[in-house]
TrEMBL record:
Name by which UniProt lists this protein: Phytocyanin domain-containing protein
Species whose genome carries this gene: Zingiber officinale
Signal peptide span: 1-23
Domain of life: Eukaryota
Compositionally biased tracts (Pro residues): 284-336
Record's keyword annotation contains DNA-binding: no
One of the GO BP terms on file: response to symbiotic fungus
Pfam family, one: Cu_bind_like
Amino acid sequence: MASKQMFALILAIVSAVAPFAMSGDIVVGGKEGWRPGFNYTEWAATQKFWVGDNLVFNYPPGVHNVIPVNGAEFKECNVTHSPRNFTSGRDVVPLKTAGRKWYLCGVADHCSKGQKVAITVLPAATPAPAWPPTAPAWPPAAPTPAAPAPSSSIQIMSNTYKEFVVVLIATAVAVLPFAMAADIVIGGQDGWKPDFNYTNWASSMEFRVGDQIVFNYTRGGDNVIPVGGDEFKACNASESSNVVLTSGHDVLLLNSEGRRWYLSGVGDHCLRGQKLVINVVPAATPPPTTPPTPTPTTPPTPTPTLPPPIPSSPSPSPWSPLPPTPQPSNDVPPPSSSLRITADVYQILLLVATTAMIVKA
């Protein structure tokens, strides 16, 4: 009974975590952002959109906007009946329901120049039905209260089941840090700009391995340069070998712990406080969990009235563990969609769980 309860608890944890780990932020247009003269139909055809994802529209504030419309308005580039209008320059639109969605820019003739996108949102991955199912009692009740001694095949299956439970727990522990990782917007609503105290701001934040830091600013008016401690102190990026980031929505993955320094290389912006130093701490990991050790019991002495022999269950199918995911050596901008655990991985978890149930049965 205790083993069944633990197995059900593990499945509940994996089922609850996996949909969040699979959801992510999808930057519309990728590096191109939200602008006229770009083919968003071809771009959308290469993407998958799920309930729980967020659409992110990046553009210079005051130059464009984002307006959700219906299919007829989308076709005619007509926004006269739309009640909503996003203008922040980094509009985050959650995808809460499945189905077709349409968005366009309502500024001047931008829509007729291709600044519109239509997507199909797929239902989010749903947890598997509750396991384990109720199994019929075995062996059938004997004429006498005496119970038969457990066979060696049952003992072998019990040991195999324990191994599967350990693997399942280890997999759940590996998934949880990704679900707990966060996107941290530098400066919050103020974004990346001169004359802002980033030292005070950073002192109130916590940066962990696996998090992503996001620099938001007007493209063409600023940049982001990762530097060393001495360059940071002197506001000197001339000797920096790092790439200068200029997209206006720069996303950096924190893939290792330690100190990190960033500054703006435009004009006197660094001297006016546009520089940031952070300390990255190890990723949050849940405490290790091990299945409880079953209490051995001594079976009663069998009587002459024994039930028929218990048939042996088939051996579980062979499987291979997932290979480790390689980590990049430096902080580099990730792809347009944030890191997610794919549906294939989730299906593997459910396959492992199902195999464990077969062995247990």
